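Propose amino acids for all 89 sites.
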């Protein structure tokens, strides 16, 4: 399982994505779960990171899901119409 930091805004987005992709490279399972339970402070960049990471997972043939998605972030995803692309674990 890969874990998001407590803060994920535009300023941290590139570093967070790199960390997730690095974790993906060492992940041996067929399914990758991202734990968003610690994420407290975020902006729409958090969704961009999750979507790009989802693309990376699909590119290497792994199933992507999220655990601990806050109601606020889920609402933001629904507002942008991408909630179906971020399946719950």
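Proposal:
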């Amino acid at each position: 399982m890969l874990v998001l930091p407590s803060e994920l805004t535009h300023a941290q987005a590139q570093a967070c994505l790199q960390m997730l992709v690095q974790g993906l490279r060492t992940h041996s399972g067929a399914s990758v779960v991202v734990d968003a339970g610690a994420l407290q402070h975020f902006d729409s960049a958090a969704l961009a990171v999750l979507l790009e990471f989802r693309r990376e997972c699909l590119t290497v043939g792994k199933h992507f899901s999220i655990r601990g998605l806050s109601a606020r972030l889920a609402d933001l995803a629904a507002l942008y119409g991408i909630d179906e692309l971020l399946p719950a674990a």
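The chain has a mean pLDDT of 96. The chain has one domain: 2-85.
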